[in-house]
Amino acid sequence: MESFGVKVEEETMLKAVFLPFISKSHLIFVVDIARLFAMHNVDVTIITTPANAAIFQTSIDHDSSRGRSIRTHIVKFPQVPGLPQGMESFNADTPKDIISKIYQGLAILQEQFTQLFRDMKPDFIVTDMFYPWSVDVADELGIPRLICIGGSYFAHSAMNSIEQFEPHAKVKSNSVSFLLPGLPHNVEMTRLQLPDWLRAPNGYTYLMKMIKDSEKKSYGSLFDSYYEIEGTYEDYYKIAMGSKSWSVGPVSLWMNKDDSDKAGRGHGKEEDEEEGVLKWLDSKKYDSVLYVSFGSMNKFPTPQLVEIAHALEDSGHDFIWVVRKIEDAEDGDDGFLSEFEKRMKERNKGYLIWGWAPQLLILEHGAVGAVVTHCGWNTIMESVNAGLPLATWPLFAEQFFNERLLVDVLKIGVAVGAKEWRNWNEFGDDVVKREDIGKAIGLLMGGGEECLEMRKRVKALSGAAKKAIEVGGSSYTKLKELIEELKSFKLEKINKKLVSVT
């Protein structure tokens, strides 16, 4: 009986293979989802390349040491002519001429990924949205494919509205605002704030159509969200897409509960930086520090950095600023930023981090009172988890949509004043002025009535986030129900095989 029991347990334990994308925000999201499934007794294998594995392997080792069935399967990145060894992912430092070479390597890997899916014989696969081809592999293997959709339900609902109704085609000017039809809230945008692929068809438009088609053919989609923050748009999205979807977030809050997890998320090697910034924060008053960061994919030219520096200094508030600058000999004056950093250090007003920052640990520190953000969804979720209001400065991707969610729908953010969507790491002449940045900072940190109302709302969302992942919470219940569905799918498949044999 014992051996029979073991066999039944092996047959009912789900086996999953995860394939994350190779930009840090997407990678961290899919890996955290993988860890979440492993926490709930699913056997998990993550397929990735060596340099990408280095970003998250510390977290996987922690989980494995806790007795969870999770591992990384490394696939060597192809040798593409002109591609430096170890350059296997996209971030703010990726040179433009290298991007196409990384995509070339990824295209070569597709057949290898496909064969691994066949060889590993998983019960289901979970892949990033940027692998639309994987839905056909799942179909071939007769298993479910879950698609991880980056960003918010709101952003994807808004994009669907624009694709369906084309309101931007009905206005005469790029700067005239229009209403997004069909959404549960009145939301207005301008043509300039839309991604270029929505304004006029291009290669990316075709890719997004492929992604959408693959989503409709998938078993369902997974979002790093929770019902209490944007449930209205989760419901709207499921009806608009006509497919299943589960909000299983906040995944960061769920998966990174101790300091070793928080420190290791997305890097985990800058221990000196971590110790230094936390020590500095310990010397500051509660809610007194502004955290300024624009994510792992963004850099600014020097003229914009100068405006940010002046706004921070003029605000009079203490701040941490994660600085990434475009290396351009023509645009700038490194001396200005060096002098600024020296001056802020002497006055103990500012802490500049040049590169990676232990973001989770910073955001959860009691001294941090608000965030200036590019409106990347990972940072939004982490900031809301920590109960922090936001100054919104969207740059590219779906970030202008996320700004509208924060400012107009949730009312936990104030816009800095960015007017135009742009391609990743591309800048025109448009510079957000120090006065506009300063005005947003003043509203966030000033303690006025609007500020206090924002803080109250975001604290309530923070509390709801914590409840969502507890037993009986919205995200906890959805994940458990999904896993039970996948088990039923597996058992049904086993039973069909048994019937065909007999």
Quickly list its features:
2 domains, Rossmann fold, 13% strand, 15 strands, 502 residues, 6-stranded parallel β-sheet, alpha/beta
- Secondary-structure class: alpha/beta
State which percent range the strand residues make up: 5-15%
Considering DSSP H and I runs of 4 or more, what fraction of the residues is helical? 40-55%
Number of domains: 2
Question: Rough shape?
Answer: globular
Distance between the termini: 23 Å
Can you tell me the CATH topology of the largest domain? Rossmann fold
Largest sheet, spatial ordering of strands: 3-2-1-4-5-8-9
**Radius of gyration, CA atoms, in whole angstroms:** 23 Å
CATH architecture descriptor text of the largest domain: 3-Layer(aba) Sandwich
DSSP helix count?
Answer: 20
Largest sheet: 7 strands, parallel
Name of the CATH homologous superfamily of the largest domain: Glycogen Phosphorylase B
Model regions low in confidence, pLDDT < 50 over at least 5 residues = 1-8
Mean pLDDT, rounded to whole units? 92
Instruction: Count the E strands.
Output: 15
Top-tier CATH class of the largest domain = Alpha Beta
Enzyme class: transferase
InterPro entries: UDP_glucos_trans, UDP_glycos_trans_CS
Pfam family, one: UDPGT
Organism: Medicago truncatula (Barrel medic)
